[in-house]
């Protein structure tokens, strides 16, 4: 894609990988709509980045808010042709913790944000991208999701998180196939450990076992 013509919605752009992605895109000439929760640093970051960024507040699990945020991105920049899904949460808890079954509440919430929230942003962004004039090679847009190594190699206490990320991996190919005729690509990356606020917020045991599971280099 021509980065000078790229307008990206970055979910979770108010922290960690999403913030880094937003800054990297802008440094290469793109414009970015930072989509994040109101309590995030998204507005502050967008203000710092100036005319090339706008903050669009939304919870990715909320259909109407996410649709309105994407509409605002289109109204601000005239188009969107990239979506980077970074919004996510990490929860930790063993299936049986001290003999008691894991609460379903955090399990459901993890699936809702990481999996359903990702799909919500994908379907709404794709509905905008399909209106774009195709590039000379037929491309109308690109969607990049963030799964995790936990999709393939989940550690103790990661049943919910791994299930949510496995879902993101599993839906990537059918979505790419669904959208292939429209010229919208869809792919997913699966990072290992990045020292973001999310990782640093995990309790010690899962964080240490994640680090210990790395081979070389251990970072
Ligand atoms: N940090 C790591 O080691 C690591 C490794 C693999 C994958 N990931 C994945 O990368 C993505 C980014 O993680 P991070 O480490 O940068 O975390 P982070 O906590 O620094 O950032 C996540 C952002 O998502 C936002 N968010 C959370 N719930 C939301 C919702 N419902 N609607 C909109 N925004 C919401 C948060 O406000 C925050 O700004 C996540 O999907 C995470 O699972 C992270």
Description:
- The chain is α/β, with parallel strands linked by helices and 219 residues long.
- It has a single domain (3-212), classed as Rossmann fold (3-Layer(aba) Sandwich).
- 43% of the residues lie in helices and 16% in strands.
- It is built from seven helices and eight strands; from the N terminus they run E-H-E-H-E-H-E-E-E-H-E-H-E-H-H.
- The chain has a six-stranded parallel β-sheet with strand order 3-2-1-4-7-8, with helices on both faces. A two-stranded antiparallel ribbon has the order 5-6.
- Strand 7, helix 5 and strand 8 (184-189) form a beta-alpha-beta unit.
- Helix 3 (63-77) runs parallel beside helix 4 and helix 4 packs parallel to helix 5.
- The protein is globular.
- It binds nicotinamide-adenine-dinucleotide (NAD).
- Nicotinamide-adenine-dinucleotide is lined by residues 11-12, 14-18, 36-37, 40, 59-61, 86-90, 113-114, 117, 146, 148, 191, 193-194, 196-199.
